[in-house]
Design goal:
single chain, alpha+beta, 5 helices
């Protein structure tokens, strides 16, 4: 008789716990400001994915010349500045060569388009290279 009562008691406990769980409802009330915070965090994540560990932006430049002669590199840079004043040009020394690069492009497609324009004046040896670039995000991204 004791085991029968014990089994009946266990059965009632299991039944009541299943019944109690099935009738519970959870209502979550979310603060609308959380959506704003999530959107800002997404924007920050996108921006940091575009940056190096030093805080500079990853992008592309066009390498126009690589030469061991400093004078040739300086002449090329002057020519680029005269022909393309809308883009900054850079001289980089990586021993034993001086490299002249132009532009600050976030997307490779933009660099490709500009390479097509430059290749009219300099038909040989223009390469798209990955580099850290100068970039200032628009105001809406900075907030």
């Amino acid at each position: 008789m004791k085991t029968g009562m014990f089994l009946l008691l266990i059965g009632l406990l299991v039944f009541s716990s299943v019944f109690a769980c099935s009738s519970d409802t959870v209502i979550i009330v979310k603060d609308a400001r959380l959506d704003i915070l999530v959107a800002k965090q997404n924007q920050i994540n996108k921006r940091t994915a575009m940056m190096t560990s030093a805080g500079l932006y990853k992008g592309y430049r066009l390498q126009v010349i690589s030469t061991a002669k400093r004078d040739d590199a300086n002449k090329m840079k002057t020519d680029l500045m005269n022909r393309f004043p809308d883009q900054k040009s850079y001289t980089l020394f990586q021993s034993p060569n001086f490299k002249v690069r132009i532009g600050n492009f976030l997307k490779k497609e933009d660099a490709e388009k500009y390479r097509n324009q430059i290749s009219k004046f300099f038909p040989k040896g223009i390469y798209i290279v990955e580099d850290t670039i100068e970039y200032t995000p628009p105001e809406e991204e900075q907030e």
